[in-house]
Specification:
Strands 1-2-4-3 form a 4-stranded antiparallel beta sheet, sandwiched between helices. α1 crosses α6 and α2 crosses α6. It has 8 helices and 4 strands; from the N terminus they run ααβαααβαβαβα. The protein is an alpha+beta fold. It has a domain of 151 residues: 3-Layer(aba) Sandwich (NADH Oxidase), CATH 3.40.109. It binds flavin mononucleotide. Flavin mononucleotide binds next to β3.
């Protein structure tokens, strides 16, 4: 009996983690419900338990919330895109990655009935990125430009941990590389030191359950296609 106790406990915890992973999705329409600053601070603190090679902890974060979000969105509004400081995708993405990317885009516009040739509607929708999709809060993730690929992967671990903690707190998120095309505007806005480079932004808030875009359930490649077992 005693031997079974801790094991059952572990299994239960695993179930909760699976549920959080499953529930996390990129939410692209938010309710205006405010998010407490303390909640974000607590999630950042907990997310900093994420591993990083050599424990260098390369993430540098700027948070906007409430009026600060509105001010930032206003400051970026109407500005022409600058150049991202890193290539978001490799040039001429190849298969199967190209189709993966294409497919999720098509599925997303389909939820809203936006046709493939309706460039104006697609462009208008895309601009919502720079409004954090209506989320009352957001963050920007920077990294020292002298860091290498391994430290960039550390950022991913930190951000995913944060997004799962958000689920636990009843919140939703959307990670956003689309902010990376405003490196100067965002960098100057927060007066970040020159060595910091903008990786991405992230919308944080409570999902609008009624918006069709939030009905999107993105697909995944079956495990047999991306993992090889050697026995
Ligand atoms: C680093 C990163 C940047 C992303 N940037 C954007 C973005 O700028 N705009 C957007 O709508 N979605 C963005 N996404 C969301 C992806 O499209 C999404 O994660 C993917 O389609 C899988 O869907 P899911 O997150 O709902 O599971 C980003 C995701 C990641 C991890």
């Amino acid at each position: 009996m005693a031997a079974n106790g801790p094991r059952r406990e572990l299994q239960r915890d695993n179930m909760e983690l699976r549920e959080a992973i499953d529930r996390r999705m990129s939410v692209r329409a938010f309710a205006p419900t405010p998010v407490a600053d303390g909640l974000i601070k607590d999630m950042l603190t907990q997310a900093s338990r994420s591993p990083s090679g050599g424990n260098v902890q390369p993430w540098r974060i700027h948070v906007v919330n409430g009026a600060a979000t509105e001010q930032l969105v206003e400051a970026v509004h109407g500005k022409p895109a600058e150049e991202s400081e890193y290539p978001i995708y490799p040039e001429k993405l190849w298969e199967p990655y190209r189709s993966n990317r294409f497919r999720v885009g098509e599925m997303m516009y389909e939820t809203m009935g936006i046709q493939r040739d309706d460039k104006a509607a697609r462009y208008a929708w895309f601009a919502n990125n720079q409004k954090f999709f209506g989320a009352p809060a957001g963050l920007f993730c920077f990294i020292d430009r002298r860091m290498n690929h391994p430290q960039w992967s550390d950022l991913g671990m930190f951000l995913q941990t944060f997004m799962l903690l958000a689920i636990e707190a009843g919140l939703d998120t959307c990670p956003q590389e689309s902010w990376s095309v405003y490196p100067k505007t965002i960098g100057n806005y927060f007066d970040v030191p020159d060595e910091l480079m903008l990786f991405c932004g992230m919308a944080i808030g409570y999902r609008d359950p009624d918006h069709p875009v939030n009905s999107l359930r993105s697909e995944r490649t079956p495990v047999e296609e991306f993992a090889t077992f050697h026995r």
